Every structure is written in C-alpha cells, then in structure tokens.
Amino acid sequence: MIRRKIRQLAVRAARWLLKPLLRRGMAVMRPTEDSRRALASLVASLPCAKPMTMVEIGSYRGESAQEFLNTGRIARIYCVDPWRMFYDADDGTSYTDMAQVERDFDWRHGGDSRVVKVKGTVDTFIKRHPDAQVDFAYVDGCHTYEAVSHDLKQLMAHSRPAVAIGGHDYNLDGVVRAVGEVLGKPDAVFPDNSWVKFLLRGGANMI
Helix, strand, or coil here: 126? Predict the structure, then answer.
C-alpha cells in the first residue's frame, strides 16, 4: 500500500515537471548506432534457418521493431503495447505523450503487412492470437519484477516460442530477478542490455 502511494505521488510529480516535454511529444527510444548493432547481433545469434515470426512486448514508437525487420530474418512481427501513459513509475519513457508515440508508431509501420499491431498487453496478444506460431519473443514492456515475470510466464505457457526468448534492460534488478527465476541465466547479454535464452523447441526448420 505504501509503495503504491509513493508511486502515485511520483507519477503526479513527474506529470507536473514534464509538462513542457509532453506538449512537444518528445519520445526517443533507441537512437544510437550501438543499440542498433546490438539488436542486429541478437537476431543474428538466433539458430533458425527459416524466416521467423516474433512478438515484441513493448513496442513504443516502433524503432526496435524496425531494427528487427531490417535484419531480413523476421517475416512477421506482432507489436504489443498499451500506449498508455504512466504504466511504470520507474521508466522515463512512460512519462511521454503516448498518444503521440502511438501516432509515430502508426506512421512508421501502418503500411507494412509484416507488422501486426496489438494495442494491449501480453494477455491481449494471447487472447487475440491464440494460434500464433512464434519463433522468437522479445520482452521490453513494463520493467518491474512482477510485470516481467508475468510476461515471461504467459509467453512460455501460451505462445511457446520455438527458438528463443529475450528482452531488454538486463541491467535492472527486477528484470534480472524475473529472468533468472523463470528461465535461468541468459545465454547471451548484449551491449545494449538486451538478453536472449535459446529454447530450440520443435526442431523443424532449425539449424
């Protein structure tokens, strides 16, 4: 109860302090070449010979989704995001104007048939696409221990990624704890703090 109250107060304070930024719709996610290279390296490490289908939990403006597609190894990507402000009091991106962020995503990916937009959470994705054949899942939504743990457990139980599961922010205590408890130690961690755990289920079409 006390922790929730503190979070609520932090959200209110941030809303007031960040009003000028919200008006301008400032929202930057992966601006550096190093972070782009890290995502490309992650995808290159996936041991799968066929074009892959992936789900990204937490797509924001769609920059990382674009980087995944640019590798040429992703044939379809489900982009899942609630585009709702203040979803995580510890994540600076949640204080940006999410209506504008969603418009930016739509501008970037609206005409791309490879992209399936899912406005909601991992539970929304599972409900709307229960038969989706997912090769790779990337978790970068809410970064609390509870949220990451829930996302990982739901993906493993219902979407059952065939090749690998990964995510971002493996420098945050909640993320490290959740990944360790649900999956164990990652097989690789990249310079942008992305991580990956190889699953290699169902062997067909894999190296």
Answer: helix
State how far the Cα of 143 lies from the Cα of 198, in Å rounded to an integer: 21
Q: Is the pLDDT of residue 173 over 60?
A: yes
What domain range includes position 189? 2-198
Position 204 in a domain: no
25 neighbors 96 (Cβ within 8 angstroms): yes
- Which are the contacts of 6, defined by CB distance < 8 A and separation ≥ 6? none
Residue 70 included in any domain: yes
Residue 207 pLDDT:
40
Is 207 contained in some domain? no
CA atoms within 13 A on the CB side of 128: 14
Report yes or no: 197 and 187 within 8 Å, Cβ to Cβ. yes
The predicted-structure confidence for 112-154, as pLDDT tens digits, reads as follows 999 999 999 999 999 999 999 999 999 999 999 999 999 999 9
